[in-house]
Amino acid sequence: MAQVWQHRLSPGQRARAEHVRLDVPAQSKEHVNTAAPLTESEILAIRGDFPILATEVNGQPLVYLDSGATSQKPLSVLDAERKFSLRRNSAVHRGAHTLAAEATEEFEDARETVARFVGARPDEIVWTSNATEGINLLAYAFSNASTAGPAYADLALKPGDEILVTELEHHANLIPWQQLAQRTGATLRYIPVDDDGVLLPADDFITARTRIVAFSHVSNVLGIINPVAQIVAAAHAVGALVVLDACQSAPHLPLDLRALDVDFAVFSGHKMLGPTGIGALYGRRALLNALPPFLTGGSMITTVTMEAAEFLPAPQRFEAGTQRVSQAIALASAVDYLGAIGMDRVAAHGTLMSRRLIDGLSAIAGVRVLGASGERVGLASFDVPGIHSHDMGQFLDDRGIAVRVGHHCAQPLHRRLGLISSTRASASIYTTEAEIDFFLQGVADARTFFGVTS
């Protein structure tokens, strides 16, 4: 079993890390899904829970294909946040009165619900504003380890150490590591992709100097599901820590972070039917407690004097100040909604949408679909030479079709693929095959409208 920076940990920390690893199931390969996709009647019933889908845009029924950026929210999620504000609004972990106790209980119940959804313990889930904050929290905690005193020195980075990312990362999983490398003198390296956007073998880039490997479970541009098991195995073989960006997998795939054997992971509520302003950082309990805090202040301390402070264990040590209480409760409601459908069936629906998107776009002359065929979620990006992505997006918007345009916060990947920008269509559980077909017709018609039919 892989060690976690074993040569850099104290005996006590090493023992605690191994204790956590003993709980990881022996079978940690990616999930194989055999579930049936959602039926048409089931999708229509789901759509009834999302009032916004009944609206019109530019006089046309809304076809929302931008869930990869922000998904829509069902009534149960909207009601959960409103119900808390109406009946239990109070500061958590601070008051002795009944309302505060009830708010705290609901807040921590939400943590337990979200933890169970991703295969974690409640004390391994740290609330953040979003995944970007979670990654920055980690990067600054590693940075602080070099100056926070001898108790944290084992996890400090130094010149000669390497941080490894990939060429397809969202900027949120690239720039914080760039900054960490600059602050500590470590070297940032990356795993390139081939012409189809597929990652080259991680073993060729992970070295004895690698200390952190950070990568996306699913590319937010290509929709490709990356080989987590292989990357994790190669990283742990040299004692490196693994940080998984699960933003595009948590809404679409069964996710068991402990079975995947990653050390840290992040995801955002607003991409998985939840509200904005809430996300989570997962970390192995021993590792979270081995890191110094990033934000400091109230609610994350045990004892404070005018000269020093002692900090609570995780997750509270990383949750300074007033928390995102109603948002966390609403995220738990979103998780319950997805769980009631069944993540196997959510994933099967995504596979169906992916095939319809990829096959349909590939059948349109002059359209270049980005990324190789293979296992994907319901997301596809494409380019039409002669039509700027912003023009394509505006043309589709005139028909009520909402898509994403631009570089999708992944400029290096676009540059590698020879592009400045692309158009992205992303589905969710409420997306119908008819909507995909309407979108495909819109792309075909755009070529005629802009005169690029040759």
UniProtKB/TrEMBL annotation:
InterPro entries: Aminotrans_V_dom, Aminotrans_V_PyrdxlP_BS, Cys_dSase_SufS, PyrdxlP-dep_Trfase, PyrdxlP-dep_Trfase_major, PyrdxlP-dep_Trfase_small. Residues 63-438 form the Aminotransferase class V domain. Its EC number is 2.8.1.7. The keyword Cytoplasm does not apply. Keywords: Pyridoxal phosphate, Transferase. One of its GO terms (molecular function) is pyridoxal phosphate binding. It holds the Pfam family Aminotran_5. It comes from the Bacteria. Catalyzes the removal of elemental sulfur and selenium atoms from L-cysteine, L-cystine, L-selenocysteine, and L-selenocystine to produce L-alanine. This is Cysteine desulfurase. It comes from Glaciihabitans arcticus.
